[in-house]
Specification:
Elements: E1 15-18, H1 23-34, E2 39-43, H2 48-57, E3 60-64, H3 73-85, E4 90-95, H4 97-110, E5 114-118, E6 129-134, E7 137-142, E8 150-153, H5 163-180, H6 188-210, H7 215-235, H8 239-251, H9 255-270, H10 275-285, H11 290-301, H12 317-324, H13 338-350
Parallel strand pairs: 1-8, 2-3, 2-4, 4-5, 5-8
Antiparallel strand pairs: 6-7
Length: about 375
């Protein structure tokens, strides 16, 4: 007998403008549409060209180039002060998760609306999740004030990403899809978004690796990124993201690479206990074995392999597991112990093969 369908779903509201080669004209049009007259542009030095072009086209009151991973509190405080001092009425964030995360930190306390112009596949632009790091601890939360009012997607902006970073960033987006399938607020709507997002990402990333110049690969990967983030924004943060937030905020590991490495181990640990998620990943990867489909994709695109390659130390595994354990979602399909987390982190540290543990029959 099937269980009756019952759920409450919230879709975060954002205007999405998606068009190749129109980052500048699209952003200018959205600033004008918003009626902003004192714009703050956040852009790292690598995005200086687009920032300069924007400055020539709209009234820019302040430019900001100090951008750091995981949004250190001191950087956020300086940026907030600058925004209020200049009476900014819109923030344009050009870049990946770090630039957009800083814009969110400003919006969290000021309510200034954000126009996000993503240049990676991080997906932060489509969520109401914020994160700040202080004294080696990353704090995250959700707040409707930090959800960008507008997202301007231009696949051409991702063309300059080095292949290894594009792969890691795409797998980070895929982590949004997979984690959404067992996150605390999962429901049929965000599960559908996650499934289609994973399918787009898998096909798009393979196309990118086959031919860096293939515009269709960039478009599919960026479309998958948005679908993944929309699913994640609704479903919430699952076990995978709880682990990666600790690794990034406490140990300073790079965001995209950390997600790319940890993902198969969380999937292997969870998938035997999550049959609905397993079926959706079979569809997304066109594979009978959902974990095998993920591992095949990682092999095809040349995914990063081991946390030790990015500075994580074996002696920190136990402490990291202790930090993760209190924030594990109680709704996770499989019970999680400190020993489980230590085993998972050890495998990810060395880059061991990801293998399912347990059958999970009768669960979920």
């Amino acid at each position: 007998m099937t269980r009756p369908v019952s759920f409450v779903h919230t879709t975060p509201a954002a205007r999405v403008v998606f068009s190749s080669g129109r980052a500048l004209t699209g952003t200018v049009a959205e600033i004008e549409r918003m009626g902003a007259t004192r714009v703050m542009v956040i852009a790292s030095p690598s995005q200086a060209e687009l920032a300069r072009a924007l400055r020539a086209a709209v009234p820019v009151a302040r430019e900001w180039s100090e951008v750091a991973p995981h949004v250190p509190v001191d950087v956020a405080d300086r940026a907030r002060h600058a925004a209020t001092e200049e009476r900014v009425d819109a923030v344009v964030a050009i870049g990946g998760g770090s630039a957009i995360g800083l814009a969110k930190a400003i919006a969290l306390t000021t309510g200034i609306p954000i126009i996000a112009v993503p240049t990676t596949y991080a997906g932060s632009e489509a969520t109401d999740v914020w994160g700040l790091t202080e004294n080696g601890r990353k704090t995250t939360g959700s707040d409707p004030r930090v959800l960008p009012r507008v997202i301007v997607y231009d696949p051409e902006l991702t063309a300059s990403l080095p292949r290894d970073l594009a792969v890691a960033s795409g797998l980070n987006a895929l982590a949004h899809c997979i984690d959404s399938l067992w996150a605390p607020n999962r429901d049929p709507i965000n599960a559908a978004l996650a499934t289609e997002g994973a399918r787009c990402l898998a096909s798009g990333m393979r196309a990118l690796v086959r031919d860096d110049a293939d515009p269709a690969g960039r478009e599919q990967t960026l479309l998958g990124t948005y679908l993944a983030a929309a699913a994640f924004a609704s479903a919430g943060s699952g076990l995978h993201h709880k682990i990666c937030h600790v690794l990034g905020g406490t140990y300073g590991l790079p965001h995209a690479q950390t997600h790319a490495i940890v993902l198969p181990y969380v999937t292997a640990f969870t998938i035997p206990f999550a049959p609905d998620a397993a079926q959706r990943l079979r569809m997304a990867f066109s594979a009978e074995d959902p974990l095998g489909g993920l591992l095949d994709l990682r092999r095809d695109v040349g995914a990063p392999v081991a946390l030790r390659d990015y500075g994580f130390r074996r002696q920190d595994i136990r402490d990291a597991a202790e930090l993760v354990l209190p924030v594990v979602p109680p709704s996770h399909p499989r019970p999680v112990t400190r020993e489980d987390l230590e085993s998972l982190l050890t495998a990810a540290w060395v880059g061991a093969p990801a293998e399912p543990l347990g059958t999970g029959e009768g669960n979920e």
